[in-house]
Specification:
The complex is a heterodimer of chains A (477) and B (315). With 477 residues, chain A is mainly alpha-helical. In chain A, 70% of the residues lie in helices and 0% in strands. Chain A has two domains: 6-180, no CATH class; 186-290 and 369-476, no CATH class. The radius of gyration of chain A is 23 Å and the shape is globular. Classes of the chains: A mainly alpha (477), B alpha/beta (315).
């Protein structure tokens, strides 16, 4: 079920009110049934895959807890193999098959292994990682195993964050599933406010930008350099608003029932360095990789070359996590290279600018960081490496043939284009403030302001919202 | 309970502020004119390019008057079936076809305007491009120009898109005003036509495959069932297409409509590629598949003859 659908408008209040009406001990099955319904609205049969993951990790958690020594490790390995196996089969089989086919056929040899004709289960990477974090935490003895299968299933399937995160940890979510939450006005109002902000980001900013971005990126050869440049700026905004908008709705919906999910974004485009960007962008994923891959590999407590390798491999895998395409692998590699370069050049940089405390210096860093990330978005959005090459060649003036920006504006209609740009600029200006209000890091100026702000979001969604069947980008991961 | 009341109170306050702001914005958009037209008509092509013929045909249509034939459907309908030709054959006809009309929209029109008393036969034109849509474009047109609030509300409940709220607000704010734009190609009794013929290169969409709007076949069945319940004979028709059109796509479309016809026991006249008429792709169409006046002049007599042959019209 999509958050931006009529079905969800009915589903959400029914589930939330039903949750509070039920006795505390009965609530888990209500939420589990709701989560199954939510997931089965996409492709019902794929719930079997989720069922497999849940069954394996539920059993693995108990067996890990009961075992000692090497046996304990083997149960963890079995859980990892089963989870990664499912992910590899459904998400990476075709990618691997096509890559092998290209190499084999390139060598002039025949290759006729067919691709799998299946759709990628929605949110597979998210719930696989969430489930894996449970068995790893049990193995580390940070988390006792969950004995109730239904509660564990709910931990993996909790509907607000089931298909696009935040990727929760058992120490946060599983713990809360055992807690009793009574209706709390402040929490519910806070949750609804965050949901409204999420809907605004998705409907008014992300989907509006998507209409233009999709037009250009569907066939970049038809557009000149300026047009692809503008489309990429809009994509930067689209992906942020799409994903953080989803997260806001997820966190808000969970909060209405008393649950506090992880913070996943902290105005990432205000980052002054790439490492800061990764501490503000998709925090639940970057911290997952930090805790379960980077640190086990040795983190930075190893010789320098190995440290660089650790960073690079983590970002390479992070790229692959996002999608089965070489463009994502390159995107991850690019960020790995950025971080290594930042470490290498840090002494020189510090020497040159250590005395600079001016505001402009911070802003210069923000702008440079934004544009380094911006280059990565070309890799992230392009459908193939060929498209990536084409776009960069246009920007470098090597092959700038194609329709002009004016042509694109006429195609999407000048009024629509103007609204999109106005909304985009307005969003950039207000987001740092609103993000703090929403996270309650700063108090809202007044109650009246709060009402006016929420009313403005509703009106903006009605007037400028872009409606239709639009998925959230991160569902595909 | 007190928490629920507090939440509802807050929602009511936010809702009230939003409603006032929303109506105020639309009031300005609908009442402030730039040149001859309100701002809202200058902001959207949907309102800008449509309107004229839909407004007139519903203003002129009198449900109290009986017609032997009502033609209904999308642009193929209102540009492909001339009341004058039917009248010359002794058949009274009115054309309720409108731009991009999908079965969802057709169903609402049938329910609110068509009865056994005012209609002898329904000719429902089936066109793949119209049925590929979800119905929002037609709803935008009809919601501003049709005379029945009930029909509009019926479309809104079927479409379930938040933009319908904007359309309904505009409808109410400009209720007393005529259509902002007049279609100079409107003839009479709901019929519009052009005399242009095809010049230059035409894109016949040969690479397109058939993707029907999710609920359109279901609503096509509903349209047929409604007519059958009312005791109004209904015939499905696809008018001739240029020979250069996308044949595989039409064959897929034919299969869908044919199965609907079989399930409902309805006649389907598919003239798309099988008509035996001296039509050519340039002189009898004004674009990739809409008839010009000359094309209509060749097709309509053949249709009347076939309908008479099958007993749907008196000889």
């Amino acid at each position: 079920m999509l958050f931006n659908s009529f079905a969800f408008l009915i589903f959400f209040p029914i589930v939330t009110i039903g949750y509070y009406l039920l006795p505390y001990k009965q609530r888990w099955w209500w939420l589990l049934a709701a989560s199954c319904w939510f997931y089965m609205a996409f492709v019902p049969v794929y719930i079997l895959i989720l069922g497999f993951t849940i069954a394996v990790d539920y059993v693995a958690g108990i067996l890990i807890d009961k075992s000692e020594g090497r046996k304990r490790k083997w149960w963890l390995v079995a859980s990892i193999v089963a989870n990664v196996g499912v992910l590899a089969f459904f998400k990476y089989f075709n990618f691997l098959n096509q890559s092998i086919a290209a190499v084999v056929r390139g060598a002039g040899l025949p290759y006729d292994v067919p691709d799998l004709g299946i759709l990628l289960p929605i949110g597979l990477s998210f719930h696989t990682f969430q489930s894996l974090s449970y068995t790893i935490e049990v193995y580390r003895k940070h988390q006792p195993p969950e004995r109730k299968l239904g509660v564990f299933a709910l931990y993996v399937m909790f509907y607000p964050q089931l298909v696009a995160g935040p990727i929760e940890r058992p120490g946060n979510l599983l713990k809360q599933l055992g807690m009793r939450f009574d209706p709390d006005y402040d929490k519910i109002a806070h949750g609804l406010r965050q949901m409204a902000w999420g809907f605004f980001k998705k409907l008014v900013i992300a989907d509006r930008c998507a209409a233009i971005v999709d037009m250009v990126y569907a066939n970049p050869s038809q557009h000149d350099g300026w047009t692809t440049l503008v489309a990429t700026y809009l994509f930067a905004l689209q992906i942020y608003c799409d994903f953080s908008g989803y997260t806001d709705i997820a966190i808000g919906a969970a909060r209405c029932m008393g649950f506090e999910l992880m913070v996943n974004f902290r105005t990432p485009f205000m980052s002054g360095s790439i490492s800061e960007f990764w501490s503000r962008w998709h925090i639940s994923l970057s911290s997952w990789f930090r805790d379960y891959l980077y640190i086990p590999l040795g983190g930075n407590k190893v010789p320098v070359p190995r440290w660089y390798f650790n960073l690079f491999i983590v970002f390479l895998i992070s790229g692959l996590w996002h999608g089965a395409n070489w463009t994502y692998v390159l995107w991850g590699a690019l960020h790995g290279v950025y971080l290594i370069a930042a470490i290498v050049f840090k002494p020189m940089w510090t020497k040159l600018f250590s005395d600079v405390k001016a505001r402009w210096y911070r802003w210069a860093n923000v702008i440079v960081t934004f544009h380094l990330v911006f280059i990565g978005w070309v890799l992230f959005r392009s459908e193939s490496i060929g498209h990536v090459k084409l776009i960069f060649s246009k920007w470098l003036g090597i092959n700038d043939a194609g329709r002009s920006l004016g042509h694109l504006i006429n195609e999407v209609k000048p009024g629509v284009f103007a609204i999109t740009i106005t909304m985009a600029v307005l969003f950039f200006v207000i987001d740092p403030w609103v993000d703090k209000w929403i996270k309650r890091e700063v108090k809202l100026p007044s109650k009246r302001f709060d009402y006016a702000f929420q009313a403005a979001l509703v009106v903006a969604c009605l007037l400028f919202g872009f409606y239709g069947k639009t998925m959230f980008i991160y569902f595909q991961f | 309970m007190s928490i629920l009341l507090r939440i509802l109170r807050q929602a009511a306050i936010v809702g009230a502020i939003a409603a006032v702001a929303y109506v105020a914005i639309f009031f300005v958009l609908c009442k402030v004119k730039v040149g001859d037209n309100a701002l809202v008509y200058r902001t959207s092509d949907v309102y800008n390019l449509k309107g004229g013929n839909t407004y007139r045909k519903f203003q002129e249509y009198d449900p109290g008057e009986r017609y032997d034939v009502i033609v209904i459907g999308s642009s193929h309908a209102y540009r492909g079936y001339a009341p004058a030709i039917f009248n010359d054959a002794g058949i009274s006809m009115y054309n309720l076809g409108t731009s991009a009309q999908t079965p969802i929209n057709t169903y609402a029109i049938l329910k609110e305007f068509i009865t056994k008393e005012n209609t002898g036969l329904i000719l429902l034109d089936c066109y793949e491009n119209a049925m590929a849509m979800e119905g929002l474009e037609s709803t935008a047109d009809l919601s501003q120009n049709i005379t029945s609030d009930a029909a509009v509300l019926r479309m809104f409940s079927a479409i379930r898109d938040p933009r319908i709220l904007n359309m309904f607000t505009i409808r109410k704010l400009v209720a007393d005003e005529p259509a902002a734009y007049v279609d100079s190609f409107y003839v009479d009794a709901g019929f519009s036509t052009k005399t242009d013929s095809v010049k230059g290169e035409i894109d016949y969409g040969l690479d397109l495959t058939l993707e029907l709007g999710e609920r359109q076949p279901e609503y096509l069945v509903k349209c047929i069932r409604y007519c059958q319940e009312q005791g109004i004979p209904i015939v499905l028709v696809t008018h001739p297409l240029p020979k250069a059109s996308n044949l595989p796509r039409h064959e897929a479309f034919h299969a869908v409509i044919d199965s609907v016809a079989k399930v409902t026991g309805t006649e389907y006249f598919d003239f798309a590629f099988d008509h035996g008429l001296p039509l050519d792709d340039r002189n009898h169409y004004y674009d990739h598949n809409h008839f010009n006046r000359a094309g209509v002049g060749i097709f309509n007599p053949k249709l009347i003859e076939d309908l008479r042959g099958k007993g749907y019209l008196k000889k």
